Amino acid sequence: MCKLCVFAGTTEGRELVELLAGQPAEVTACVATEYGEALLKSREGLTVSAGRLTEAEMEALLRREQFDLVVDATHPYASEVTENIARACESAGTEYLRLLRGGGDAPEGAVCVPDIAGAVEFLAGTEGNILLTTGSKELAKYAALPGFAERVYARVLPMEASLEACRAAGLGPDRIIAMQGPFSREMNTAMLRAVSARYMVTKDTGGAGGFGEKAAAAEEAGAVLVVAGRPPQREGLDFAGTVELLSNRFDLHIRPQVALVGVGPGSSGGMTVEVRRAIREADCLIGARRMLEAVRRADQAVCEAVAPGDIAQCIRERRDCRRFAVALSGDTGFFSGARRLLPLLGDCDVEVLPGLSSLQVLCARLGTSYEDVVSVSLHGRDRDIVPDIWQNRRVFALVGGADGMAALCRTLTEAGLGEVRVSAGERLGYPEERISVGTARELAGRRFDPLSAALIENPDARPFVPGLPDVCFLRGAGADGAAVPMTKSEVRACAMAKLALTRDAVCWDVGAGTGSVSVEMALLARDGSVFAIERKDGALALLEENRRRFHVSNLQIAAGAAPEACRELPAPTHAFLGGSGGRLRELVALLLEKNPRVRIVASAVTLETAAELTAIGKEFAFTTFDVLCLTAARSRAAGAYHLMTGQNPVYLFTFQRQKREDAL
Predict the structure, then answer these.
(1) Could you read off the pLDDT of 213-232 as tens digits, one per residue?
(2) pTM of the predicted model, to two decimals?
(3) Residue 421 carries which DSSP code?
(4) What is the CATH number of domain 111-228?
């Protein structure tokens, strides 16, 4: 186990301490104030020393503790402290490593001066208010400015020592902004405008110190940015290089830090403080070009990638970076790439930060709630939304493509839903955002931006109940003139209950006939998939017509005889056996081979088939082995009276194995 000391006076210093605290290492973190101590989380193996140390006190600490290495992660402008640490290490014979903070690129129009004295000299020849963001230690140097007490506003840490420095320099309470960062571009801009600042004075604090946010704010507020240059720096390594050296030297396994961040639906203005922090602190930002351009720091490494595999590969290959932020549109938990990306990041420490979803933004613009809204995505997905609109009063849809929104409205109109109310939001969160409200029929001829979303309201929606009336389905005869069989309404209702389908179920309907069971499976498993297996040509044509009639795009037709036609299909979670061509046992064996825990419901109308299913249930040792004999009678008119006509009895067999019974 190694023994390390980190002088952790900066954001990256504290982050390094937190990384090391999870390793087989004894770590001592030295901070100057109790406030700095409070920012470090208590960890096993971590000792925090709070208080300013002289060079002699540093040397005594190093001799006493016999550290393997000291990391100097103090502020780049704290040159005196850096020299004290370096000399103490040399005297104590302890290895010294300087952690360097990268600098920022001063924007065009900025005034660059060598130091604070140079900033004072420049400002002495100007007029107008000044916002100082250079801290409280050197505040007294600005007191020589003409009109200092009337021109200057100082942003300092909310600590008594900082406030006392302001008072000693001659600033009144109304000229002191006592706040702890980080500060976003928007917050910096608001402060500049609040004090009517014509000048903003900063040090070159780099990306970790918020330099980019200050520069952008000064440009937006029309203020001149005055940048005080850094004192000469000792040689050292950046954050990623420091981590790599420590990992190699002491055989540590410091994993990449990855933040999956939801950047909201549009511009950077919709991001949370946590997301801004993760983006600002990242060595490398990953995402689509549109998002990178909106949120990246000027000096930040970027990787343009969208597919989960490409993102994971970028993280593995960027050995020069340790902290990554993956920018994901909207919210990380709402139709986001985060779900597929997370399993690929098992060798990383991952933080998931939510953002505003387009659902939230659109409903807020419309002044409505969204707790009763059903959400679907049509962006890059093959889904027919019509059944969702039939069944739900309010549906939110993510729409993609140049013609996506108009095509959606045309589809609804063609399905007889032309009068439903559609609220279409385009480029939500951007300055050019637009909301259009009308019926699907009215909006079908409009042009919309590819970045669109819609809230669709259907007051006449009715939830789907299994056992649709038989007349809802097209029926007919095959090529041989024989009627194509159809599972009747009451049997279908019982079969659906026995199947107990989940919303994401993968279903087989073997011997689908007209497809009545397949259609109801598809309506229940809206986020799953259904495969209708049928060998008769006449039935296949009816299947296709009923699939179109009910707009069930998650229903696919597999032509051919079972079990051969089933062998290449995905493993089912549920299966309904309405016909098998006399090969029931082979079919059940294939189902169990595909998924040992598949739930099977099989129907029988003859005693011979019922006997065969009974034998199959025993042979395969199902732990769930249930038989229902369903008898029903339907009314029919007889003149002025109605009589009941009995239907053929139907046997429904339900089979399933529990986990311990998987083996044949």
Answers:
(1) 888 899 999 999 999 888 88
(2) 0.69
(3) E
(4) 3.40.50.620
